[in-house]
Predict the 3D structure of the following.
Amino acid sequence: MNITDTELKLQGIQVLTSALGEVQAERFISLILKEPFDYTKWQRDLWATQSLEELSRTAMLHWQAQLHEK
């Protein structure tokens, strides 16, 4: 699915707010904006201790859980 930049920003804010609440979502955005941030390096370091199989299994479990919630 291809969405516009505006739609992506709105969905991102909705996800953050839903997951963190309004105050913590705002805090998260503020932290990201004021610090130099390399998203690619962060992602690489974030999952460095997990194998591809572990990441895949975790993603599949999360996806299945989301399907059952709907």
In short: Residues 5-69 form one domain. The chain has a mean pLDDT of 88.
